[in-house]
């Protein structure tokens, strides 16, 4: 699984931070950061989700009030 995080869309509610430890509060920017991610486009970050953290990653994606987080399975199909 991989997760995509559109940091530009993020409004800093930090609900993702509560659901998955890979998301961290960046109070200076007023947005979340995604640890270990790679910026593939401007403000679009991607990271592979460890198998034992998939459940938490899914909850983080579902908790985002502005849909700034998308989760994809290994076949590239969007799960959230």
Automatic annotation (TrEMBL):
A GO molecular-function term, please? metal ion binding
Q: Which Pfam family is an annotated match for this chain, by its short name?
A: Fer4_15
Q: Where are the transmembrane segments?
A: none
The source's domain of life comes to Archaea
**SUPFAM superfamilies attached here?**
4Fe-4S ferredoxins
Q: Which InterPro entries match?
A: Fe-S_cluster_ET (IPR051269)
Q: What name does this protein carry?
A: Ferredoxin
Which keywords appear in this protein's UniProt record, sorted alphabetically? Electron transport, Iron, Iron-sulfur, Metal-binding, Transport
């Amino acid at each position: 699984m991989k997760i995509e995080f559109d940091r530009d869309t993020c409004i800093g509610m930090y609900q993702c931070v509560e659901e998955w430890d890979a998301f961290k509060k960046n109070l200076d920017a007023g947005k979340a950061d995604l640890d270990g991610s790679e910026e593939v486009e401007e403000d679009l970050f991607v990271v592979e989700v460890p198998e034992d953290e998939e459940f938490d990653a899914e909850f983080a994606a579902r908790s985002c009030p502005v849909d700034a987080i998308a989760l994809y399975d290994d076949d590239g199909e969007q799960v959230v």
